[in-house]
Amino acid sequence: MNTGKLKRLRAAGWKAGSAGEFLGLSDQEAALVELKLALVAAVREVRRKHGLSQTDLAQRMHSSQSRVAKIETGDQSVSLDLIVRALFAAGATRRELQRALSTVA
Amino acid sequence: MNTGKLKRLRAAGWKAGSAGEFLGLSDQEAALVELKLALVAAVREVRRKHGLSQTDLAQRMHSSQSRVAKIETGDQSVSLDLIVRALFAAGATRRELQRALSTVA
DNA sequence: CCAGAATATGTCGGATATGACATAAAATGC
DNA sequence: GCATTTTATGTCATATCCGACATATTCTGG
Q1: pTM of the model
Q2: B24: three-class secondary structure by DSSP
């Protein structure tokens, strides 16, 4: 995912307007990162909306609580595939998916 | 991606109405597969619209022609991340991404 | 037809993502 | 305040994905 840099800067107190403002991220890479961040936020929203804990969601997607935590914190080791699977497993409707994407796409 | 089954059946002459009609694919898995198929189709469309060969696109995304071919043929070894990267590299606009998704989402 | 371009398929070693576990840190509510 | 639940972080062996290469197949114009 290569959000490592972004995450570190966030942790250091930066507030990024858009994820692509940092050196070393091409437009394409930046677009992908922003897409992921938007979906990651949606995962947490949808999960909570359905009253699920991370452990609950983990079971639904045959994964583990720690991985769900990594998904939601934007860990660099998390793929777009996994994010989308989490979204579906959390019970996101197609409309919710579209809505999440509309913030970035 | 686990489209292997789907692909084999397609090759064998089956015409799937929706990708999830096959046994062994949960709703969640089916949704992901359909999402990927929609985006994969968009990659080819956008690439051709911009007059790019697979080799051209491969260069743009620092990949190889064979991998682009695998993307567009829905090879099971291709991640959603790679599909989206291909889409951006092919020059897809955000609107085109949304449009591609609207067929499934 | 055929030559050249484009696309597809098979394979492989190295790179990255994964679930799982342990454990720490925060949040919750009583 | 404390016990319990929830969430975060670090690590690891394994699974999966990756670019690259070789080669086959299909497409296109002459």
Answers
A1: 0.86
A2: coil
C-alpha to C-alpha distance for B23 and B46, rounded to whole angstroms:
32
Residue type, A79: S
Contact A84 B28 (CB under 8 A): no
Which range has highest mean pLDDT (A24-38, A68-82, B17-31)?
A68-82
CA–CA distance, B43 with B89 (Å, rounded to integer) = 9
For A14 and C12, how far is CA from C1' in angstroms? 43
In tens, the pLDDT along B20-75 reads 555 456 888 899 999 999 999 999 999 999 999 999 999 999 999 999 999 999 99
Domain containing residue B35: 17-102
Residue A58 is part of a domain; what is its CATH number?
Answer: 1.10.260.40
- Decide if B12 is inside a domain: no
Q: Do B32 and A85 touch (CB under 8 A)?
A: yes
* A75 within some domain: yes
With an 8 Å Cβ cutoff, the interface of chain B facing chain A consists of 27-28, 31-32, 35, 61, 79-81, 84-85, 88-89, 94-95, 97-98, 101-102, 104-105
Question: Into how many domains does chain A fold?
Answer: 1
d(CA A22, CA A9): 10
Read off the pLDDT of residues A36-59 as tens digits, 9 standing for 90 and up: 999 999 999 999 999 999 999 999
Q: Which residue of B has its CA nearest to A104?
A: B94
